[in-house]
Structures are given as structure tokens and as C-alpha cells.
Amino acid sequence: MRRKIIPNRGELKRKAVNYKTGMDLRLDDEMIKKMEALVENTSTQFLDETVETLKGLREALGRAAADPSARREVLEHIREEAFQIKGMGGVFGYPLLTEFAKSLHDFLKELDDLDELQQEIVSIHVDTLYVVISHRIKGSGGALEAQLRASLKAAVDKAKPGVRAG
């Protein structure tokens, strides 16, 4: 069978933005304001959705405490939500949200079940995420946030399987 060469008709080039004149990346003040408003609205929406997610995590923790047979399902749910928050926090300028969600995700990564102490560590993470959102802490925070980081790390280290004294 012979190969057939299909010539490029240039349709993609014609559909490209400002193909003939090139792209004009200069933005007027009105367009900049519209873009900033869109980013702010999207950021607010992200925070609102994250608050709802955290409420769901608290409810899930309550289920895990009340019904030990639900703990594995709750663990997987929390792990997935922590991963999502971890990924989105930095996008919207909340690196602490990312850092604390990463801490939670990493803590849960190797667990197959949640005992009472581990549930408490998850609860502390959720509370810490709430603090970041409720105070809208952008950037890496200050002394209080550094103290939170250290306390969270100490709690996680204490609750890791095989580390605790029986």
C-alpha cells in the first residue's frame, strides 16, 4: 500500500488568535480589573468549597469514631480530599493550606486504619486548615504559623505507627 501525503490546508493557522498581526499582549486597565475580579471570585469560590470539604471531613471523622467498620472508607476519603486541597492551595496563593494538607496526606499515606490517636491528629489537621482559611492567611505566615507547623510535626511523629510506646 502506498503512503498518501495529505497536504496541510492551514486551517489551524487561520483559527489562531490574531494570526496575521500576531498576539497583542497589552492589557488595558479595564481588562486587568476584569481579570483580577475573576481571579478573586475564583479564589473565594475555592475557599468556600474548601470550607464545605472540611465540614465533610469533620462529619467523616465522627462516623469513624462512632463506627469502626467505616474507618477505612473514611481514611480513603480524607486522604483524597487532603490531596485535592494540597494541589489547589498554592494555585490560589495559600501555601500554608498546601503545606498543612500535604502534612495530612503524608500522614495518612501509609495508614490502613485510623486508631483514636490518629483520628485526633487528623482532626488537628482539619482544624489547622480551618484556621488558615478563616484568617485568609496568604504566604507562609508568621511566628504563630511556624509554631503550628512544629506542633503538627510533633503530633504526627508521635502518632506514626511503630513509634508509639504501647
Description:
The chain is mainly alpha-helical and 166 residues long. Helices cover 68% and strands 0% of the residues. It has six helices and no strands.
Radius of gyration: 23 Å
Strand content: under 5%
* Shape call: extended
- List the total number of helices: 6
Q: Layout of helices and strands, plus pairs?
A:
Elements: H1 11-15, H2 29-66, H3 71-89, H4 95-109, H5 116-134, H6 143-159
Short description:
This protein has six helices and no strands. It has 166 residues and is an all-alpha fold.
Give structural attributes.
mainly alpha, 6 helices, 68% helix
